[in-house]
Design a protein that fits this description.
Length: about 400
């Protein structure tokens, strides 16, 4: 009875950007937190939770994590999809947090204990041109980063994905989507030159990554992967949209550049073929959009059979609650690869106090019971929701493209 859920609250707050958080409270007063943020579509998940999930949670045993997951997944009848799986993830992570607090154990110990000291992370370096991007990579190396993702502006393309305009990169910047214009040939010329320069400036040791952000066709992606081979990328990410998982066969036929995919996936079924056929090297689906710890754990175990490693999404639109849960997972999971890490703003960090810390290019979790991330509700209330959407992209003739 002490484990009975007596209260469930959906907190929407915007400390610099929008976040949706679920707070579950048990009769004994222990609470758990789960992130439910789906960038640009936040209120759809907030409503899914508030209107359709919360009434099912009151009176439930917080210890029945698996049963609750199955209830919400099978019981919805309408399975999968980003909104549903993000809502289920929020409940799942909050329940794991409660379990940890009740047991007095950090989450990684509940999962099976430590496999490594810290989780290798990669930071985001970008610049308006190749020179600026190279300087930005240098800045990360000075901070002790061992792995850096690099993006640079493309001549003739205004506001390309991943390039900040001075302050921290935050793509969902306006109430209606910003319109950008994309040019594939110019990009395919520029990207190999960027990595040629980065290897010349920074040597062979640093791990370099790059995100194509779904903007190439399969054969274009194959060409880029081949052109980048001399620079030994840690990975090339989202080289082509992956709804058709077979598309990656074409890239594999032409290149040995390591491939990562999956930040927009929400279940194991989205990557089953990619993994079984060993068409990718890293799976990026993370806890918040992939049904929580209970589902992503299955995905990671399946991936391990095929030597595919994790490389969790970690952009700033995933809240510190997801980062904390993901880092516990990274600390445990045997087939860990790397963790994406963009710094949250000071405002965000103040609303979500946490005990993870960066040391020498790796993030380390603390030993606080649960996932170690809290929510300052009084402070959160000072940052009301502000509708923001992600940009869109068009080709030069005006037709819609992938941003
Ligand atoms: C990444 C991602 C992000 C996404 C963002 C969308 O690799 O970090 O591609 O930059 O665009 O999370 O909300
Ligand atoms: Mg990405």
């Amino acid at each position: 009875r002490e484990r009975e859920i007596v209260e469930a609250r959906v907190v929407v707050t915007s400390p610099g950007r929008n976040f949706v958080t679920l707070k579950l409270v048990t009769r004994s007063g222990v609470y758990g937190l789960g992130d439910a943020t789906l960038n640009g579509r936040e209120l759809a998940v907030a409503s899914y939770l508030q209107d359709h999930v919360v009434p099912n949670l009151i009176g439930r045993d917080a210890g029945r994590i698996e049963d609750t997951w199955q209830f919400l997944h099978r019981g919805a009848y309408w399975r999968r999809g980003p909104v549903t799986m993000t809502a289920i993830a929020a409940v799942d992570v909050a329940l794991w947090d409660i379990l940890g607090k009740m047991a007095g154990l950090p989450l990684y110990r509940l999962l099976g204990g430590r496999s490594r000291e810290g989780a290798l992370v990669y930071g985001h370096a970008n610049g308006r041109d190749i020179g600026e991007a190279s300087d930005a990579v240098g800045g990360f190396l000075e901070q002790g980063f061992l792995a850096v993702r690099a993006q640079c502006g493309v001549p003739g393309v205004k506001k390309a994905y991943g390039i900040s305009s001075g302050k921290a990169y935050e793509p969902a910047e306006s109430e209606l989507p910003a319109e950008t214009v994309w040019n594939t040939p110019r990009y395919l010329e520029t990207a190999p030159k960027l990595f040629e320069r980065l290897r010349a400036d920074h040597g062979s040791q640093v791990e370099l990554l790059h995100d194509v952000h779904h903007r190439l066709s399969p054969i274009e992606a194959a060409r880029l992967a081949r052109d980048l081979e001399p620079y030994r990328l840690f990975w090339l990410e989202d080289a082509t949209p992956a709804e058709n998982q077979q598309a990656f066969e074409l890239i594999r036929q032409h290149s040995v550049t390591a491939l990562a995919v999956g930040e927009v996936f929400n279940s194991i079924w989205d990557c089953k073929h990619l993994i079984e056929r060993q068409l990718i090297d890293y799976i990026r689906t993370t806890i918040v959009h992939g049904g929580g710890i209970s589902h992503v754990r299955r995905l990671a175990d399946f991936a391990a059979l095929y030597q595919v490693r994790t490389g969790f999404h970690g952009a700033t639109d995933l809240s510190p609650v997801t980062m904390g849960a993901a880092l516990h997972f990274d600390t445990w999971v045997p087939n860990f690869g790397i963790q994406e890490y963009m710094f949250h703003s000071e405002e965000t960090d103040a609303v979500f106090p946490h005990d993870y810390a960066l040391r020498e290019g790796r993030l380390h979790v603390g030993d606080t019971p649960g996932h170690g991330v809290d929510l300052d509700e009084a402070l959160a209330a000072k940052y009301p929701y502000a509708p923001k959407q992600l940009p869109v992209a068009r080709l030069e003739d005006g037709s819609m493209w992938d941003w």
